[in-house]
Amino acid sequence: MPLPLDILSRNNDSPTHHEALAVRAEIEEVELQRERILAELAIIQAQLSHNTTRLESLKPILAPIRRVPFEILGEIFLRIPTSQLRPGNHQKSVCKLSLVCKRWRDAARLTPRLWSHIWLNAENPKLVFEAISAWTSRAGSIPKEIEISSSCCGGVQWGNFRSIRCAGLGKCFFSKDIFPKLLKQTPGTWRSLSLNCPSPDCLRIFMLSLQATGLKPWDNTGWGSLRSFEVTASKWADWTSPSVVSALSLIPESVTQIAIHLPPVARQEAVPFATFAWVAPLNIPKVTMANLTSLKVSSVAKAVLAPSALFSTLQHCVNLKTLEVDLSGHPLLCHSIDPRAAYFIEHGLSLPNLQHLRLRQISPKSLAALKLIKSPSLLELSISFYLDSYVDRDETTPNFSKEEGDIGPSAAYDGQALADFIHGDRGSPPTLQSLHLKNLFFFDDALHHILHDLYSLSHLQLEWIGIPGNADDFHDLMNGGPQCLPLLKTMEITKLKYPIGGEIPFLREFVEERGVDLKFSLHDRVAWENDNKRYFYLTGYESESEDDD
């Protein structure tokens, strides 16, 4: 009698002839059943795949994003991060968003601010007026901003400094007819014009081309309604050339904001104290300066700005409310043999309407010159020391002691000079409401000494700073009575370098007692050391190329 097949499957005995026949018959039956099941399963899987695909196509129809109104979609689009080189310019994001779907394209078209800022590469041979005008027309009645830039024009010439030569009238990239046509014929108004010209002659040719088409500085047109004018001259050999003087004389009278990015300075042998320093005024017409409410002046790493050059310009800015100066780490030093500086050393510089003063990348040695500025209405003061790209390095962080010669290393700067500059005229009522200090180390009591009688201060920001781990500054501020920072409401301490652990003595007790809203962050040394993109860590932005698509 043959053994049951399940018993044969559990041993290693050789099957008999009849058992082998039974096994083969069983195998054939199971294989037939398996084939039927697989056939049925294939049908079910096909149905399942179809159903899944159908669900994936149907569910998005009910997605909340489809019900979001165009206005809200537009606000979302406006919050997409823009280029660091051109904050507020949405050209790249608009092009990408418009390719997603018709609804997004329609939402973008119905959001005027997405189209109000345009950048044009002057080197591009395919610039078409109709296409650019159609783009800017979608901004509607919103004032528009335009930036025109080029990294080259003619050949390269050599002197004390390498500079780029203009190709000349008719060949210069900035002599194209499309630019004055845009400023004259485009509907609406232009709020801002930014020019990044490779040479001063390029700027002159651009301004003359506007004049040749009949555009006048006083015309009530797109050009005549301009409010902001910016010139980047970082590749130039000279800022004081006749080309610059004639070009700036054509700035519309409507302009109230000017930004100038100065070039490196050629050696001026005839003026001993002017070696590698701008000593001449900035050539902005007096009429224009009298109308200014905002002025920004920055210099590249190889340029030094003499106080006389800056102050000779500022003395005519009687209505100035916002001033930003970026010195790229160089000192602003007054020389007694400079006849222009001698006047300001004796009389100072009065800016009675100045409310916002932002000093970027300055040297502590500049404080002696800067305190000549008298600004009795100042509300906001921001100071950053040395280069922003090195704020994480101790060797480029200036140390401040309470007083000159006080306990501390010989390299410590005078905290009293910093305090005097921040406080201004102590005989006048305090007005300062916001103070931002970046990249400095306070020795014992220096911070307390600077802050303790800022009676009107409501916001304090300390960025990339250091303070001894046993310092009593906040203890002294807390115990100094209600007269110490009585109006302080918010405080930001960001990327604190020292103490390494972040425990500033008595800081917590101070903010709790005063009810101050504190935002706090440490310098993340692990992220800094492990991340090879150091610039990104320092600034929060990726480095970008102007020619990125």
From TrEMBL:
Origin superkingdom: Eukaryota
InterPro entries named in the record: F-box-like_dom_sf, F-box_dom, LRR_dom_sf
Keyword Coiled coil applies: yes
Keywords: Coiled coil
Domain named F-box: residues: 62-118
Coiled coil spans: 20-47
Protein name (record): F-box domain-containing protein
